[in-house]
Design goal:
This is Alpha/beta hydrolase. This protein has 8 helices and 8 strands. Strands 1-2-4-3-5-6-7-8 form an 8-stranded mixed β-sheet, sandwiched between helices. Helix 6 links the parallel strand 6 and strand 7. Helix 2 crosses helix 8.
Length: 276
């Protein structure tokens, strides 16, 4: 008899699924659009999720959260923000995930697009970050602006090499985004070359959230790179007097390694930016 409540829960859940006729699951209010880069002719699937109030509040415009590595990040951010946004704890936003170019494998696409210098020691192509940033700015931004009700607030979310790309955009095109969430950034690329870039001045205010798993060091998780040290060096660069209008928050995620840090990075960073 002590198992009866558990059995009743399983029966109730089974009946609920049957009543809703669920055979596959799709993220609500989401769609996928292909956008072509006119310079490279590469085509990138773009995942878009609209807020719950979008259809009923026709006069409202929304901030946009842009994610790299969409096949991984879009599901995580959609799920993690659903409850706080729908209950009014967070400001609602349109979520846009930028996926990998069609016809190439994920590693090839992201290594090419997220690194800012060519490195002949890599087997895969590197060094197309500026080209990719221009594609986002000149093709994706106009598409989103012309098809959805958006305001001027744009947030970048990137992890690992995506964090490196975010730092590169921040230093070279700072006003592309209002806010930056940089998870476990690959500062180590090209012997920490990203730290040598002279940042372009910006009078705009920016909020920057940097997070890293506390175990992302050679001692625990990363045999070749100390990602914790790299994130701390990036924090020091951004916390210097060169950035009077920048607000930076740093989070070391207890017990997290490179494979597990991002979900916490994403929700904690977005909650910091969008909490009411």
């Amino acid at each position: 008899m002590k198992f009866l409540p558990f059995i009743l829960i399983l029966i109730s859940f089974s009946q609920l699924v049957k009543a809703q006729n669920i055979s596959t699951f799709e993220i609500p209010r989401s769609s996928v659009i292909d956008i072509k880069d006119p310079i490279s002719n590469r085509v990138y699937p773009i995942f878009v999720k609209l807020p719950a109030s979008y259809g009923r509040d026709q006069g409202k415009s929304y901030p946009v959260i842009y994610l790299t590595d969409a096949l991984y990040s879009f599901q995580i951010v959609s799920g993690a923000t659903r409850f706080p946004m729908n209950t009014g704890k967070m400001e609602e936003a349109i979520i846009v995930g930028i996926s990998y170019s069609k016809g190439t494998k994920g590693p090839s696409s992201r290594i090419r697009d997220f690194t800012h210098k060519k490195d002949s020691s890599w087997k895969l192509e590197t060094g197309r970050a500026l080209e990719h940033a221009n594609f986002i700015e000149n093709s994706i931004f106009p598409y989103v602006k012309s098809h959805y009700r958006v305001n001027n607030s744009r947030t970048y979310v990137g992890n690992s090499l995506g964090g490196l790309l975010g730092a590169y955009i921040l230093f070279t095109k700072p006003d592309m985004f209002s806010n930056y969430i940089l998870g476990s950034p690959s500062v180590w690329f090209m012997n920490n070359d990203i730290l040598s870039i002279k940042p372009k001045k910006s009078l705009d205010a920016h909020k920057i959230f940097i997070a890293v798993g506390e175990r992302e060091t050679p001692k625990y998780d990363s045999p070749r790179h100390d990602i914790v040290a790299g994130a701390q060096q990036l924090l020091s660069k951004l916390s210097s007097g060169q950035y009077p209008n920048v607000q930076v928050k740093f989070l070391a995620i207890e017990g997290a390694n490179h494979e597990t840090a991002f979900p916490t990075t994403a929700i904690q960073g977005l909650y910091w930016l969008f909490k009411k």
